[in-house]
Design brief:
- Chain B: Keywords: Electron transport, Heme, Iron, Membrane, Metal-binding, Respiratory chain, Transmembrane, Transmembrane helix, Transport.
- Chain B: This is Cbb3-type cytochrome c oxidase subunit I.
- The complex is a heterodimer of chains A (242) and B (455).
- In chain A, β1 and β2 form a beta hairpin.
- Chain A is elongated and about 90 Å long.
- In chain A, the strands form two sheets. A two-stranded antiparallel sheet of chain A has the order 1-2. Chain A has a two-stranded antiparallel ribbon with strand order 3-4.
- Chain A has 13 helices and four strands.
- By secondary structure, chain A is mainly alpha-helical.
- The N and C termini of chain A lie far apart (88 Å).
- Chain B is mostly helical.
- In chain B, α1 runs antiparallel to α14, α2 packs antiparallel against α5 and α2 packs parallel to α11.
- Classes of the chains: A mainly alpha (242), B mainly alpha (455).
- Chains A and B meet through α1, α2, β1 and β2 of A and α1, α2, α6, α7 and α8 of B.
- The complex binds protoporphyrin IX containing FE (HEM) (2 copies) and fe (ii) ion.
- The site of one protoporphyrin IX containing FE has 26 residues of chain B, from α6, α8, α9 and α11.
- Fe (ii) ion (FE2) binds next to α6 of chain B.
């Protein structure tokens, strides 16, 4: 039978061997990480963004590279998923974007701080994380299993106008067009039948002024972007003649 | 109790249970927030509640370990503690640092580094405090009459836990390095040196409670902690899959972390076998039950549920979801909370001279807390698996998924009520024991002098 002294030898020998192996692998990892994480792209803005991330314990609700808490979305690829303009608007007033839903702290970040955070996220998303976060592999199967509705499919492709950038990145997160998009606000396919050009324009310029207490945030759109959006909306579904 | 100075353990145990109760309050805040009732958002946002919940956990467990060490080390080295006064000072300063850290979390004073949220300036105080603790324990052992494997394993565990705290204090701008070295603390604690502490306390309790020969028990202790390090050190790799570390960690982390459950299986078999083998029937059955419960549930929570998501193919999907929280709860409860409870239950009758281990209260405390925790694990599991499929596999929006799993958090909170009822009974039992008495010097030692008391 195993004696106590050989059991002790097993403990000491094994521990020493595996500790040394671990240190050697750490050495190698430390030499590879700068390249895998594009450390040369970590400018001051990225570092400041990282500090903001740390100082406010954002990881206490979110995950990044899969580490953190499970109360708020995974943010490794957030720039890719939402786009910069969306993040900008969202961070200025997080609760306005998702009224009545799970709340994020209102940090009152300055423009510069938001820029730093976005720079940090852009750096994070290019880290070689061995394929994390993965693409949803069941998504195509789920879509194939659903009977496609030609009237819905036609709605967007039939539209003469291309979707403006603002629409793609911001509005869509709350409103649906052609069956795609958020459910916070109403679908926008038939707004042209319900509102005139002036009404739409006024609404986008000042939602609270038109309907006090509405969940729709004031997106502070420039005149040009607003015109573009109104034009697009009026032409959805062939305009008011469906 | 053989030595008067062992009584200082009481302060640590009482503090430990108090902090546990506070941890549960914050657990409910988290559970309700997940259910959609984040009513405290303006005062205690989720990240504050969460940092408080997990740090209270770590602090009360460490407090329990320290109390256990102040009890076990005099016993094992057969002499009084070198200084009770300094032990009390160490206790008081530990509490002060802990309270400052927790208050800081409520004022946005922290670092966003999961489990290591305590800001660096306070880390230095933690270090001083722990050095004082190790000094007291070390000097007692050094001057003691005998060196036992159990005592030495406990000390090695405590010293290495202190050393491994240091890499967590280094500042890195690069998130990948920050994360890489954060795991030296978090992983190498719970899947490394804390297992040494657990193993040592387990053997101490088994020696006392079963009467099996010390040589036999300590031999197996070496084997088990040997397996712990054999698998656990390179097993750190299971946290390096997807954080930007090289790809070889998928292979190394996968293989070695898959061996980690063996150490926990070893502890379970070891504890069961020894309790069966032991001819002696110690009257404190409930302490034995916590001891065996610890060995078994640590295997289920850490070993089995850890294994469930440790392979890289699985972890790719479950990484950073509620599946992790499922495992975290049962692992911490089974391995570390239960060993502290076992120690408390073993120590209190001796310290106070009251044999309050019979009757319905300790029984129900054991049953309700364990049933409650297993049910909580089930609730997290259902929520976590649903999240993995809907969000990660199908690609549904995060908040939509969270809304659809809110109902499982109702389940979680109901289970947590059961669990909390069990904990409150345990605490009430503890209170009934009263404070340590001066005159109770019994010798509940290996020579089996104690009467076959059936109180
Ligand atoms: C008593 C021992 C253990 C405790 C207390 C424990 C606790 C935890 C905790 C709290 C986490 C979350 C960490 C974080 O995300 O920051 C975690 C993660 C993890 N644990 Fe354990 N654990 C234990 C043992 C094990 C074992 C033995 C295995 C493997 C067989 C394991 C596998 C994992 C894996 C794979 C993760 C990462 C999950 C993810 O990617 O999100 N654990 N553990
Ligand atoms: C009243 C009972 C409890 C409730 C309702 C509860 C609930 C929760 C919730 C909702 C989370 C946050 C998950 C997230 O980030 O979204 C959490 C985290 C955590 N809790 Fe508890 N908890 C309770 C008791 C405990 C106990 C007794 C322990 C330890 C034995 C514990 C250990 C942990 C750990 C380690 C984490 C971090 C998990 C991770 O990051 O993966 N909790 N708890
Ligand atoms: Fe681990």
């Amino acid at each position: 039978m195993l004696s106590k002294s050989s059991a002790r030898l097993f403990f000491i020998g094994g521990t020493t061997f595996f500790s040394l192996t671990f240190l050697a692998l750490t050495w190698d990892t430390v030499s590879q990480v700068p390249e895998r994480s594009n450390a040369h792209e970590m400018n001051e803005s990225v570092t400041r963004g990282h500090d903001i991330w740390n100082d406010n314990n954002c990881m206490g609700c979110h995950t990044i590279l899969g580490e953190g808490a499970y109360y708020a979305p995974e943010l490794t690829k957030v720039v890719e998923r939402r786009g910069e303009p969306w993040i900008r608007v969202f961070l200025k007033d997080p609760q306005a974007m998702f009224p009545g839903r799970r709340k994020m702290v209102q940090y009152n970040f300055t423009e510069d701080q938001i820029t730093d955070l976005i720079e940090f996220f852009k750096w994070i998303q290019n880290i070689d994380a061995n394929g994390f976060p993965p693409e949803p592999d069941l998504a195509p199967k789920v879509q194939n299993a659903m009977v496609s509705d030609p009237s819905v499919a036609g709605a967007t492709s039939g539209t003469a106008h291309v979707m403006p950038e603002m629409m793609k990145t911001i509005c869509i997160s709350c409103h649906a067009v052609g069956g795609k998009g958020g459910k916070v606000g109403p679908a926008l396919d038939d707004v042209a039948q319900r509102y005139s050009r002036t009404e739409l324009d006024r609404w986008l310029a000042d939602p609270q002024g038109v309907k006090p207490g509405t969940g729709m945030p004031d997106l502070k759109l420039s005149d040009e972007v607003r015109r573009e959006l109104v034009e697009y909306l009026l032409n959805l579904n062939g305009g008011g003649n469906q | 109790m053989k030595y008067q100075s062992q009584k200082v353990a009481y302060l640590f145990f009482a503090t430990s249970l108090l902090l546990l109760c506070l941890q549960l309050v914050y657990g409910f805040i988290l559970g309700f927030a997940h259910m959609g009732f984040d009513v405290l958002h303006d005062w205690i946002p989720f990240n504050t509640a969460r940092a408080t919940h997990t740090n209270l956990l770590v602090v009360w467990l460490l407090c329990g370990f320290m109390g256990s060490a102040y009890w076990v080390i005099p016993d094992e080295s057969e002499r009084e503690l070198v200084s009770v006064k300094w032990a009390v000072i160490q206790w008081a300063s530990f509490v002060v640092v802990g309270v400052i850290a927790l208050a800081g979390f409520h004022m946005n004073w922290w670092e966003g580094r999961k489990f290591l949220e305590i800001p660096r300036p306070l880390d230095y105080f933690v270090v001083i405090n722990v050095l004082l603790f190790l000094g007291l324990i070390g000097a007692t052992a050094w001057k003691g009459k005998r060196f036992t494997t159990t005592g030495i394993t406990l000390i090695i565990g405590l010293v290495s836990a202190a050393l491994l705290y240091l890499p967590g204090m280094i500042h890195f701008d690069n998130q990948v390095f920050d994360s890489y070295f954060r795991w030296w603390v978090v992983h190498l604690w719970v899947e490394g040196v804390w297992e040494l502490i657990m193993g040592a306390l387990l053997s101490y309790l088994l020696i006392k409670l079963t009467g099996v020969d010390r040589e036999v028990i300590e031999k197996w202790l070496y084997v088990i902690v040997g397996i712990t390090f054999l698998s656990g050190i390179l097993g750190t790799g299971h946290h390096y899959y997807y954080i930007g570390a090289p790809e070889y960690w998928l292979m190394i982390g996968g293989i070695f972390s898959a061996l980690e459950p063996l150490a926990f299986l070893g502890m379970a078999i070891f504890a069961m076998a020894m309790s069966r083998k032991g001819g002696r029937k110690h009257p404190n059955r409930i302490a034995l039950r916590w001891t065996l419960g610890c060995a078994v549930l640590s295997f289920v929570g850490a070993g089995f549920l850890g294994m469930a998501h440790t392979l890289p193919q699985v972890n790719l999907w479950t990484h950073g979801t509620l599946v992790t929280a499922m495992h975290g709860h049962l692992a911490f409860w089974g391995a570390y909370a239960m060993i502290v409870f076992a120690m408390i239950m073993y120590v209190m009758p001796q310290m106070t001279g009251r044999n309050l281990y019979n009757g319905w209260l300790p029984e129900w405390a054991f049953l309700l807390s364990n049933i409650g925790m297993i049910a909580m694990t089930g609730a997290f599991a259902v929520a976590g698996i649903a999240q993995v499929y809907l969000e990660r596999k199908v690609g549904m929006d995060f908040l939509d998924v969270q809304e659809s799993i809110e109902v499982h958090f109702l389940g979680l909170v109901l289970a947590a009520v059961l669990f909390t009822a069990g904990i409150l009974m345990f605490v009430w039992n503890f209170v009934q024991f009263g404070i340590p008495q001066n005159d109770v010097l019994t010798s509940d030692d290996e020579e089996g002098v104690y009467a076959e008391a059936t109180a």
